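Help!! Second protein's tokens look totally different from the first
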Amino acid sequence: MLVLDDYCFVCGKDNPKGLRIKFTYGEGRANAEFTLDREYQGYKEIAHGGIISAIIDEACAYATLSLGVKAYTAKMYVRFRRPVKIGERLSVEADAKLVKSKLVEAKAEIKDEKKRVVAQGDLRFIIYEEKT
């Protein structure tokens, strides 16, 4: 069973170690603005790639959720185009579309303050159907 609560690492407001990113979403789209603190770095002053990937995954999940379905990530490809600086204001935008009865495809981009793409993701989600 897929249950949403407020303890998600990326968006959960109750997770003291999480990112607490607040997403706006609807009609197959999702977006957010955020700044990463030093706790999320890999190399000095550079965000860890796993954190960037998690944000892309979450943005695409919200875009998928806005289609009226619950789904889980089946496949994710992330391309890192530039280093992501710690402390810099970033934005993420995602789009999702239903491509088959149980499959959603989604894409996301993270951009820096200068509107340059720093990372891109292509994801596939499998729609979760609850068994009764």
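Here's the second one for comparison:
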Amino acid sequence: MFRPTQLLGLVLAISLLTGCATRTQADSEADQDATTTLADTKDQSCCDKPEPTRSGYLPDKPAQPAAPSIKAGQSQATASGFVQEDGSLKPDIQAYADEVSRTRNIPQPLVEQLLQSAVYNKQAAKLMSPSKTRVRPSWVTYRKRFVEPIRLKAGKQFWQEHAELLEQVQQEYGVPAAIIVSIIGVETIFGRYTGDFRTLDALATLGFRHPDPARPKRSQMFRDQLADLIELHHRGWLDAHTVTGSYAGAIGLPQFMPGSLRRFAIDGDGDGKIDLEGSVEDAAYSVANYLRHHGWEPDLPVFAPVSIPDPAKQLETKGLEPNLSWRKLHEHGVKTRTDQHNERWQAHRLGMVDLVDEPRDTVEYRVGTPNFFAITHYNHSYFYAASVADLAQQLARQTGQPNMPVDR
């Protein structure tokens, strides 16, 4: 499906402030296929903190399904706004408002009022514009941007400050504290850079005025995320007039897009609301919940502890799902390291991950477990998932947690 070589240009452009928990990026359309909406009360919503299962791991409760895609509305690569001279919505946006109101059960005046208040954001459009030159993918360069002293120092402090919380989330969900800390560190350097674009403006701009008309699925994705934002506002989970985030519409410490917030966010501190910007508890629980719903397996490493023969190109996995058995890998010369004793990962599907560095003319191969591919659903990039794992590994070691299951 998506490869690092295809995505690096976008990743380099989006860098620190794109939404990741998504299938959230501009290339992700897969979550737009289900049919229900948020429940009418908070006690029934996606955002409650469920009780532990007998196995001790969560989640036991299904995620909210994705809402149906909004068919009305279209994108034009212009710098114009969304309303006519008399203040009413332009015809295609009015049609969009009608459908959002009807399919999401939201009062039409509220939908119209929010859309009328949206402002075209020139900077968001500029940052999302396609690159005029091809960026040569470099795994080494990419990794250095995230596994670096600032994040390691801040990550150690963040872990120490929230050790009890992170241990609790780890015990309940089976997602290592190191992974949760690493994702928040990669996304926003632990809340230092969560974005100052008004989310309503960013999503309206990219949904109705996307700068790349050759890729209509991107603008469609942003229109659907805009509908999710409007629904979250209606349900009282956030204030669409004021909430800010990345230029791509991602929110808070973990950079959740509205659709992911709607489906996977957790009220970790039990205060009856979701605050991914100000509540570390909500952010940590939400990251763990997201990963579990996207295939994270407790007690497995991110990478299989193996030695890989050269060449491994014939075994490369091409998408976001592991497709190889341990038997096939072993038949092609992949061997377990002699210092490893936990071999539970051998019972799962695996993937041969290629980390390409074109400027250096090298490729680093690793064998990813289901947990590696769970991270790729957070951001559709092998580079991203491998950087999260490597940062998590370094953080675990420097905080005295060498047995965290992230080592390869």
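Reply: Different proteins will give different token patterns, so don't panic. The chain is about 40% helix and 5% strand.
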